[in-house]
Amino acid sequence: MSDINSNIPEGELTSKWTKFKSSVPLVNPSNKRTIEIIIVGSGLAGASAAATLAEMGYKVKCFCFQDSPRRAHSIAAQGGINAAKNYQNDGDSTYRLFYDTIKGGDYRSREANVHRLAEVSVNIIDQCVAQGVPLAREYGGLLDNRSFGGTQVQRTFYAAGQTGQQLLLGAYSALERQIGMGKVEMYTRHEMLEVVKIDGKARGIIARNLITGEIERHFGHAVVLGTGGYGNVFYLSTNAMGSNVTAAWKAHKQGAYFANPCYTQIHPTCIPVSGDHQSKLTLMSESLRNDGRIWVPKKKDDDRKASEIPEDERDYYLERRYPAFGNLVPRDVASRAAKERCDAGYGVGKSKLAVYLDFKANTERYGKIEASKSGIHNPDKETCMRLGTEVVKAKYGNLFDMYAQITGENPYETPMRIYPAVHYTMGGLWVDYNLMTNVEGLYCTGEANFSDHGANRLGASALMQGLADGYFVLPYTIGAYLSKEISVKAISTDHPAFVEAEQRAKDILNTLVNIKGTKSVDHFHKRLGHIMWEKCGMARSEKGLKEAIEEIRALRAEFWSNVRVPGSADELNTELEKAGRVADFIELGELMCIDALNRNESCGGHFREEYQTEEGEALRDDENYAYVAAWEFKEGVKFELHKEELKFENIKVAQRSYK
Amino acid sequence: MSTGNMNLTLKVWRQKNNKTEGALVDYKLAGISPDMSFLEMFDVLNEDLITKGEEPVVFDHDCREGICGMCSMFINGRPHGPKDLVTTCQLHMRSFKDGDTIVVEPWRAAAFPVVKDLTVDRSAFDRIIAAGGFISVNTGNAQDANSLPIPKMQADAAFEAAACIGCGACVATCKNASAMLFASAKISQLARLPQGQPERYRRVQSMVAQMDAEGFGNCTNTGACEAECPKGISLENIALMNRDFGSAKFLSEEAL
Questions:
Q1: What region holds the 4Fe-4S ferredoxin-type domain (chain B) (predicted)?
Q2: Are A175 and A47 in contact (CB under 8 A)?
């Protein structure tokens, strides 16, 4: 079935990576000094790779669109990072992390990649602690763990609700150290606009200096994209405002396959939309589900305040439907369950598009423990709540403050209102085992690639994958390619391929500023987001997707004839930046719908209404769809499907059950 | 497009680039919702400007959830506006009243030159980190994470210092445009951890030298930085930095 080669090494699953590492060709130190690597993106995947490759001796250029590499959106990850350390002695192991991740991904990821991820997960924690990342500790001085969805062990390491920040600052420090030593050249406020290919190999990029508007050419023996996910195709998401698909999409247009674009993660616990002015959605960490219980009233359209609804009139629907995992089911399952309750008329709040996340029971339980620690036996409820609130504050204070600031409500007193929102994209550029796309010399790491999470990512696995790719995988695998490139001298950026690529980029910019239409970029972005959310969001149907494809095509035509971009291309022009990104999102949106329409099954973050069990669970079709859908871009925004068959040799494929 | 009923007058700093002079320009806004964030209010302003054929106000922003440190407005004389412990992106219009006049300026410091409108160049912060804000450990050299127990209180104190988002509010509010709160947060995070000891004194010396080279001012202990820091970074970090800086004369490798 496969017509693409994933280059997975032969041998036992558990020894593939070890064997690969010890047999991969090396590049000697003097050759490394002449080999240049371009890294686009400075988040966990990009910064860790840039720092590590520079430490190894390569010449590295790193690019980010923000004003500092420290601001990449990895910084906003809240909950934690998984690692199979088994510090809690609760039966965790590499195999169990591997198994949970494959199952969590609804059997749509590659066994070999996921096993490697589980293997290196332990090294990440060691590396970060060595860098001085202040992960949470217990009184004995050892590292603390907590639980995340889709697992029954405690393997998640964290730093309050700011784990992404601390891990990114660790990688950023490592990167700045290399910058200080002159081993990495950092280009901030630069946006990649084209990949340059020479004789079929990626040899550089075209980037725009966002301050001056200047178009620059940069050569590299290899190019790495660590440019994050494409959730902003929905306009409203938990992504940063600047998060975009442009680098990946330009690579796609130069021949790199885009895999499983329809796999999007809708995170169950976000602050609900409050009005049309909304520019982004804010996540409330999955870690809150450790201590929060999710419920809706048992009565339809119940307008009473949460505190007035007695215990026996509350429906803790996750605990009811999934007794084994309860509130800690994976994200796709929790999101769909919330949508189901709201669609059935049980939603809460003004919009009725919200469910409660309630901390009362656990606050009281913590309070009891605290009371007994300080010698108060049989404490009254008020004392328990007071003491318990302190514990909750210590655990989740920053999240509760953020909730209060955004909603104007006090979550210590009333339950949080939450609703699912677009959060992460499992799809991305297709890569082989070496993290190389099908364009030679073009690599893709972190959220920007498709490889490790299948159809649904488990909580606390994104940080793990970003850092695994950057610190421990790419630095080895890229050597295999570069060892064959040592005789290639730096290619002049006067080469016709650079000239041509620069012209392509300039043509697009000039077209955009010269349309001089009547509608702003945001206008089109919002309309695209609306189509995507309604028809390619939490639930999809053949009819809706077909409509969406037509609507997006029409939107694309309208965009290119009526968008208004004020100012010029040779200055700092934020509207022009946005316009280029939205143009790419529109094309990607169409591909996402095409991919969702092609996949006649439900799996993980892809739920087709036509394919569900009687209980409303996702119904996979392993016989026909156990493959990676890798799309090739064709002239005129057309897409051709290639398939990579997924073989499960070490795990028995079964229907996912969290009951 | 707005849903609210607040009317506002904005006085916004407009400056084409770092070679031209800037000035405050007045804008009237109607129909602002109290549930909007401050930046969403600016989105409304920009949408209006674009519709009228004018250039939108350029301002830095990205995550809009208070953690990336990119947003940087000086609002009514205070960085990140009137509320404590909140970044501009997390400031909501319910913190203002109908009819208010709001003055919005960029961060002002010689070491943070204006790029355009409300956007400034904070790359000096990166150079301070590059001078020593790290532990020199290459990838692949780490021992098992739990082989180095660290008392919880110490780890928590390091975390509190590490919570700095590098936004630059401390510099913007300081009458001397000092970057000491920023630099000391990183210095103290690493000084409180056993991993940070080997380079402790070398680090403080090189980071302070870089801070001076960038043109940031000195600290005169007014404490405005701590008061305005959206992440509550403590002035104690500066004390620790000063102590280490003093000790470095005697305790750095060069001195020993």
A1: 155-185
A2: yes
